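Example record used in the benchmark description.
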Amino acid sequence: MHTPVRHPENSGSSPTDPYIQLVTPDGIRVPDPIYDRWVDDIDGARLRELYLDMAVIRRIDTEATALQRQGELGLWPPLLGQEASQIGSGRALRPSDFVFSSYRENGVAYCRGVGMEDLMRVWRGNAAAGWDPYAVNMAPTQVIIGAQALHAAGFAMGITRDGTDDAAISYFGDGATSQGDVNEAMVFAASYSSPVIFFCTNNQWAISEPVTLQAQVPIANRAPGFGIPSTRVDGNDVLAVMAATREALERARSGHGPTFIEAVTYRMGPHTTADDPTRYRDAAELDDWKAKDPLTRIEALLTQMGLFGADFTADVAAKTDAAAAELRAACLGMPDPVPADVFAHVYSEPNSWLDRQQEQYSRYLNGFAPEENRA
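Model output (structure tokens):
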């Protein structure tokens, strides 16, 4: 891989190190002799599509957070501030690639075509998995930190055996890089030259612990120790993320094995809606990162190009509001699950031990029914 060009704006990353940047926080398009070719097809129209994608998932995220605060969702993991990382990488994939994400990549799920109701199921407590993974080529939400990296590495080994040029991608946060699963996955991927991308969303905080507590050097520097080339990219720059992901995908498809991408971004909201970030981070840090917002920099670039006029603004507002309304209706209209369904998919074949539990649970529930309705 290539050594990225250092830009002055990079001084806000932590730990500091150069990263790929194609659009500055002020909306200035920075020429890059290496990475421009990976996004040379992104003209003004495509750039507006990327902006719309980011605006829609931000609106979805805002609505889902409101639904949780109103008691309609049990929990929600906000993605505010990380839109460019998710859209830039998600739109680089093709439908036949397979995604293994953490619990925060709802923007990637949107790119894969996951419906609004399916996005809500797990967080409303209506299902153990939100969608059919084979319908959208994206595994269900993974809450166990880092486990999905092993799944992606194994799936990629299967891709090689199948002889296709598809790829797998695993998303995880900076905190997950301290988990054994992520490191073991890189051992397997490097050993078998598997077509997999390890996409680390470095959002600066592993719940309440800063990235500097576990990473004394940039996280991307770890991967070469496994024999995996790495790239460090401005995770708030949708074009840079797309370029880095496309390069990694080409490497995977051409038989040259895995790539590690560290997308340097920031979690603007809480870790989940159960978290209070004001207890552990400085408000000044939040203000610094607001100046690097993924949407405002593309808005500035489009404005310079004469492509962010009143008509486009109205179109964005209409589509984001429609997405939010669809999400809310899907959530509130979701039927409650049947209690006995919790036993439905534990084993693939009948199991007497589980049958006994289900019978006991049914009798327990029956005890709450009106006497005339009891079985």
